[in-house]
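Students often ask why inverse folding is considered easier than folding. One informal answer: many sequences map to the same fold, so there is more than one right answer. In these notes we will look at a single instance of the problem. The structure comes first.
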C-alpha cells in the first residue's frame, strides 16, 4: 500500500448518528400508535425514505419530511396538527443534538494527521453536516471536508479528480460497506470497514464480502486503524 490520503466517513464512523435517528423513530412510532403498530410504521417510514432519497437526498431535513408524509399516510390524513407539531419538534431536536465523538477518534486523527493528509467524505444535508463538523471540534485534523450528495463510484471519481489523487493512493474508512468501502475498492482504492452496532436499513447489504483483492480490512474499533497504516 502506498497511501497518501485517508478519507473518513463521518456519521457512525467519527461521531454517533444512527442511534439518534432510531431514537426519533421510536418516539415517532409511539406518537402514531393509535393508527398502526410500531413494526408496520417503521416499515412504512423506510418505504417513504427510500422513495424520497432521490428528491431530498440524505439527512435530517429530508428525514423530517418523510416522517410527516408517513404520519399522514398511516393515519389516512387523520393525524392531528398537534402530532405534526410534535414530529417537527423531534426533527429539530435531532438537528440540534450535541455531537458525540466515537471513542478513540480524536487520538487516531491526531496521530494520523501527522503522517497523512486526512479528509472527511460524508453524505447528508450540507448545512447539517457543516454544523456537525464545527461542533465536533475535530475539523482541524482535516485537509478537506467533502459533503457528497451520494457515495457511489461516480461521486468518488469526481472527488479523486478534484483532489488530484489516484485511487490506489487512497484509503477510505467507514461503517457502511455499501457506501464507504465497495465503491472505493471498485475504483482501485483501499478500504477499512468498521461496522457500527446500529446501521440504517437502507445501508444494509446481505453480506459484506470481506477480502476484495486484499484491498479491504475489517476492524472492530477505530483505534485498531493505527496498526494497519
Ligand atoms: Mg456512516
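Output (designed amino acids):
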Amino acid at each position: 500500500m502506498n497511501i497518501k490520503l485517508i478519507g473518513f466517513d463521518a456519521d457512525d464512523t467519527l461521531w454517533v448518528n444512527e442511534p439518534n435517528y432510531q431514537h426519533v423513530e421510536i418516539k415517532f412510532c409511539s406518537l402514531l400508535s393509535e393508527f398502526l403498530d410500531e413494526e408496520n410504521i417503521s416499515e412504512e417510514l423506510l418505504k417513504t425514505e427510500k422513495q424520497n432519497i432521490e428528491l431530498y437526498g440524505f439527512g435530517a431535513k429530508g428525514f423530517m419530511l418523510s416522517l410527516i408524509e408517513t404520519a399522514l399516510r398511516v393515519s389516512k390524513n387523520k393525524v392531528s396538527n398537534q402530532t405534526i407539531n410534535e414530529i417537527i419538534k423531534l426533527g429539530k431536536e435531532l438537528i440540534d443534538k450535541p455531537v458525540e465523538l466515537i471513542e478513540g477518534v480524536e487520538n487516531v486523527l491526531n496521530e494520523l494527521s501527522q503522517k497523512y493528509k486526512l479528509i472527511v467524505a460524508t453524505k447528508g444535508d450540507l448545512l447539517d453536516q457543516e454544523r456537525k463538523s464545527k461542533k465536533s471540534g475535530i475539523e482541524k485534523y482535516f485537509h478537506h471536508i467533502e459533503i457528497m450528495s451520494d457515495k457511489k463510484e461516480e461521486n468518488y471519481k469526481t472527488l479523486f479528480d478534484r483532489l488530484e489523487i489516484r485511487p490506489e493512493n487512497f484509503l477510505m474508512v467507514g461503517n457502511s460497506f455499501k457506501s464507504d468501502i465497495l465503491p472505493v475498492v471498485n475504483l482501485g482504492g483501499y478500504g477499512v470497514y468498521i461496522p457500527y452496532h446500529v446501521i440504517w436499513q437502507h445501508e444494509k447489504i446481505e453480506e459484506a464480502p470481506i477480502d476484495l483483492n486484499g484491498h479491504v480490512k475489517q476492524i472492530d474499533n477505530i483505534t485498531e486503524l493505527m496498526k494497519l497504516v
